[in-house]
Each structure stands twice: as C-alpha cells, then as structure tokens.
Amino acid sequence: MRLQLNELRAEPGRSFPLEGTEELLDVQWEEENLRLEGPVAVQGSAFFQDGRVFLTLTVAGTVHRRCGRCLGDVVERFRRKDFLEVPLEEPKAQYIELAPYVESGVRLAVAVRPLCREECLGICAQCGADLNTEPHRPGCRAGEKEVDPRLQKLRDLL
Fold this sequence. Notes:
Number of helices: 3
Helix content: 10-25%
Largest sheet: 6 strands, antiparallel
Radius of gyration: 25 Å
Shape: elongated
Oligomer: single chain
Order of helices and strands: EHEEEEEEEHH
Number of domains: 2
Distance between the termini: 69 Å
C-alpha cells in the first residue's frame, strides 16, 4: 500500500483518509514467524506539515500462533491504532510505502505470550504431559519440592 504525496503537499494540514489492505507475507516477531490469515486491514488518515507526514493508522487482522504454555493452536484477532510522524528523507519523494508501518503495527498489536485460554495449565517440565488433557505421568516428581544442593548445608545446620 502506498501513500501518494502529491495531494498531501498541495494542501498542507488537510487530512486525507486512508483505507485498504496490506498483504504481509512474512512477519517475524521475537523469533516467531506470525502466520497471518489473509491481508491486514488498514484504515486511517494522513496529512503533510513542515516536510513531514503525520499518519493515523489502524491495523486489524487475524494471526495463527502457538500457545505460550501448551503449544496448542491459538487464533488471535488483533487491532491497533497508532499515530506516526514520518520525516521525508527525500524531499521530492512521490510516495511513502506503508508496509513497514503496517508490519510494525501488527507486531505491537499481538500478545507477547498468547494463551489458548486463561486457565491453560501448560506442559509439565518434568514428564512432558499436556496438563490440559492428561494428569502427570507415573513417576513424575513435579509436585515434590527439591532442595537446592547448594543450600543443603544450611538446612543441616538448622
């Protein structure tokens, strides 16, 4: 999606509406490849003032991710509104490519650690059981408190 600058420069301070979609193929976020479901919807406005473009962008869409606790599938809907100031590096530029700003909005809109549901129990670190669907496996010692060997001497003294 491109923002044409000729109209903006012709009427400084006047707000121009933006609406469209941006097809983002590969969005990386914290070593995770976000799988977007279709294009990202973009709405907003832009105006030109003192050699800069001011953008109000709202990005919305759906992304498929993994649960941060149990690694199950999560479908996350996102929506984010940002106000951006874009200095023009080249004064005679004809357009601004909006894809980087849309991509940034997607990264900021998604949850840091998505959960399939709030009460997700996750995977046991000891036996590997998905605690949402099964109990701890036989021989699992996850519930037992283990004393740090570095503190064992202190415990013996008390």
